[in-house]
Amino acid sequence: MFNLYINPKNTKGHINPELQGHFSEHLGRCIYEGLYVGENSEIPNVNGMRKDVVEALKEMQIPVLRWPGGCFADEYHWRDGVGPKETRKKMINTHWGGVVEDNSFGTNEFMELTEQLGCKRYINGNVGSGTVQEMSEWVEYMTFKGVSPMADMRKANGHEEPWQVDYFGVGNENWGCGGNMTPDFYGNMYRRYQTYVRNYDGAHPIYKIACGANADDYDWTDGVCAAAFRKAEWQHGFMDGLSLHYYTLPFDWGKKGSATDFDEKTWYQTLSKTLFMEELINRHAAILDKYDKDHKVGLIVDEWGTWYDVEPGTNPGFLYQQNTVRDALVAGINLNIFNKHCDRVRMANIAQLVNVLQSVILTEGPKMVKTPTYHVFNMYKHHQDAELLDSFIETEKIGVDEKRMVPNLTESVSLGKDGKVHITITNLSATNGYEVRAVLADTPVKAVCGEIVTGEIHAHNTFDAPETVKTESFTDMKTSGNEICINIPAASVLHIAAEI
Ligand code: AHR
Predict the structure, then answer these.
(1) How many angstroms is it from 45 CA to the middle of ligand 1?
(2) Ligand 1: distance of its center to the CA of 81 in Å?
(3) Would residue 303 show up in a list of annotated catalytic residues for this protein?
(4) Which of ligand 1's atoms lies nearest the C-alpha of 73?
(5) Is 86 considered catalytic here?
(6) Are the CB atoms for 253 and 357 separated by under 8 Å?
(7) CA–centroid distance, residue 71 to ligand 1 (Å)
């Protein structure tokens, strides 16, 4: 038996809803087909946005959406994507499959989509191949209320009122696809570009995000911070957030493997590599601590998730992959880690929303399936805007390869807005169930309700069998006083809501 100790009286921090954020790039069939089908499509849509997809994402309470990239962001020129669609420029999407991008989904369409979703907006600007003027004018186009060339252009394009932009990324992966810069050079570019990301809307200042490291490139974090934090007495800080990208690749040396065909060793290897996220957060945060002593700057994990070989027969540049119970575990483990680090991690965006990498939704023509990852996000939504509770779980090491052992269980616990204690536990074992005894210090449990995502480790949803993996009600637990005895099955992600 494994004890899970929870102290409902000891809150550790606020869980920003944005920890469950998403990312949508002009890549493969994410935007086109996945989210946007155009007003004239036979697929049911509202102003071009797929009704089925929007409905599913609203149910999951998508809190924030990042757009337009990714690597695409540093090649994107926003003016190409506004105004009458017939006259919008066509371009080649050089990063992703060399396909024609007709720019029919641009700024106004993104705003429409996020309005339908009821979520916050995270726009990623172009530093790699764009000018300061271009970035500055984009912000003016979107957010300036008064009379100005860009505000007038927005009005002429049919939107009188400015939009609210919540987050703005100043470049993406500028150490690589975003311009191959050095940390010091980018740090200075960041200072310059962000100066012109003006806060026209005093009530809702834009949260500015600097491009952070790729995985364990700690020199990047240190170098960017050294340049970007240097300021005179009279200057304000330049940075609200610093990003971090880390993908789970099941193998070392960049080998990825199939999304659905893997052995037990690869299962544990994948989960072990996912758990590395915790070390990354700790070490990047420790560097930030040197520069940001007041803990004001957020760590923004704006790209994470599994990255496998593409599905056989699909365009290698489209990054289309299936999603199994293994992905459900990867999602649950990461979301638990983000919760536990909510003092520093202010936003995280899984890559990517629809049809690309670890998606929550897959589409094929008019058909749509919710992936196991979707169901995990849908369960974890109870943590949104909740208070993290002090908790600790006993674990043992499991696995089939000594070098890749993992703890059998991970957890996070919060006090929800509904006054309930929300417990999420992942069982990383491919084969074993465990008994977990949750003890809520000095707090009797009045009632419990459970839901679970579980299945054979390769189980996944297809367009013919869309509900092989879904959220099921979970009842294999007993309460007595301040304890809940839970029998958690192998390979599962569990959510328990306890009334106290
Ligand atoms: O998500 C796919 C790509 O991964 C993004 O465009 C880029 O930022 C990262 O390398």
Answers:
(1) 28
(2) 21
(3) yes
(4) 6
(5) no
(6) no
(7) 6
* 173 Cβ closer than 6 Å to some ligand 1 atom: yes
Measured distance CA(336)–CA(146) in Å, rounded: 44
Encoded amino acid at 9, one letter: K
Does residue 171 line the site of ligand 1, with CB under 6 A? no
**Could you tell me the end-to-end alpha-carbon distance of the chain, in angstroms, rounded to an integer?**
23
302 within ligand 1 shell (Cβ under 6 A): no
CA–CA dist 152, 143 (Å, integer): 12
Find the catalytic residue in 303, 435, 451, 483. 303
pLDDT tens string, the chain, 500 residues long: the values are 999 999 999 999 999 999 999 999 999 999 999 999 999 999 999 999 999 999 999 999 999 999 999 999 999 999 999 999 999 999 999 999 999 999 999 999 999 999 999 999 999 999 999 999 999 999 999 999 999 999 999 999 999 999 999 999 999 999 999 999 999 999 999 999 999 999 998 889 999 999 999 999 999 999 999 999 988 777 777 999 999 999 999 998 788 999 999 999 999 999 999 999 999 999 999 999 999 988 899 999 999 999 999 999 999 999 999 999 999 999 999 999 999 999 999 999 999 999 999 999 999 999 999 999 999 999 999 999 999 999 999 999 999 999 999 999 999 999 999 999 999 999 999 999 999 999 999 999 999 999 999 999 999 999 999 999 999 999 999 999 999 999 999 999 999 999 99
Within its chain, how far is the Cα of 486 from the centroid? 29
Residue 54 in 3-state DSSP? helix
